[in-house]
Write a structure and sequence with these properties.
This protein is α/β, with parallel strands linked by helices and 238 residues long. It has a single domain (6-237), classed as 3-Layer(aba) Sandwich (Rossmann fold). The protein is 37% helix and 16% strand. The protein is built from seven helices and eight strands. It has helices at 30-38, 60-77, 97-110, 132-149, 185-193, 196-200, 209-222, and strands spanning 6-7, 14-19, 42-47, 83-85, 114-118, 166-170, 177-180, 230-237. An eight-stranded mixed beta sheet has the order 1-7-8-6-5-2-3-4, sandwiched between helices. Helix 2 (60-77) packs antiparallel against helix 5 (185-193) and helix 5 (185-193) packs antiparallel against helix 7 (209-222). It is globular. The two termini are 24 Å apart.
Length: 238
């Protein structure tokens, strides 16, 4: 992690967060979203899958609806009421034109200034290997921002929108910006805790929201002047 983070920009009013699975935003980004909504900003969620392959003990037809409900509950904990799901297959999301089109259509509909997505790079900040769905959705989101602005692409997917000013990538090994979530940390923990069925199937630190989120937030906060706890992003300025 860098020794000093730059604060995220604040001169915006609408954001769209695009990730692969229920729980992706809660493992790191939801504290920032809680702060943004508390400040009166609008944030909507778009998930590429319903997380139907995410719990080993539940078949997909039961798991998907359960995880969708848990994601809506998690979003409510941080002030988000708009949660949309695509139907790309959990674990088998493919980067390509169909995924780019779906995300571009959502960008045109929500007209965000900030787009948030998850790490599309091969590795996590700690060096662990990232999974295919995250990489596909993150990269497709970056490309869909440009697609959404081009009126000749996907003409049946709404009016063009060229108002995205930044893409913020959560859990990136190249993060250099951050948000102070000291006052919002409890809400971040509550949002992850809302994924009860998913957490019940995990082991280790990832199964304990407080144990997982606090050390990461403390490490970021140590590098963000004036903060005790923070969430870091790689910020792409468009």
């Amino acid at each position: 992690m860098p020794e000093c983070y730059t604060p995220m920009p604040t001169d915006w009013s609408r954001a769209l967060a695009v990730v692969a699975h229920p729980d992706d935003l809660e493992y790191g980004g939801s504290g920032a979203i809680a702060r943004w909504t508390a400040e009166g900003r609008s944030v909507a969620y778009l998930l590429a899958t319903r997380g139907e392959a995410g719990i080993d003990t539940l078949p997909p037809e039961k798991c998907g609806p359960l995880r969708e409900a848990e994601q809506r509950a998690a979003a409510a904990e941080v002030g988000v009421s708009v949660v949309e799901f695509l139907d790309h297959p959990d674990g088998l999301v493919e980067y390509g034109v169909p995924l780019r089109r779906d995300i571009a259509e959502a960008i045109r509909r929500h007209r965000p200034e900030l787009v948030v997505t998850s790490n599309h790079r091969e590795r996590w900040p700690g060096g662990g290997l990232n999974m295919a769905d995250h990489r596909a959705v993150g990269l497709a989101t970056l490309d869909a921002v440009r697609d959404a602005a081009n009126r000749w692409l996907f003409p049946d997917a709404g009016e063009p929108w060229d108002g995205v000013r930044w893409v913020a990538i959560a859990a990136s090994p190249l993060a250099g910006h951050a948000v102070d979530i000291t006052a919002m940390f409890d809400r971040a923990v509550a949002s992850l805790r809302a994924h009860q069925a998913y957490l019940a199937g995990l082991r280790g630190a990832m199964a304990d929201p407080e144990a997982f989120l606090r050390p990461v937030a403390e490490a970021v906060g140590a590098g963000l002047p004036g903060a005790e706890l923070g969430v870091a992003f790689e910020l792409i300025d468009l």
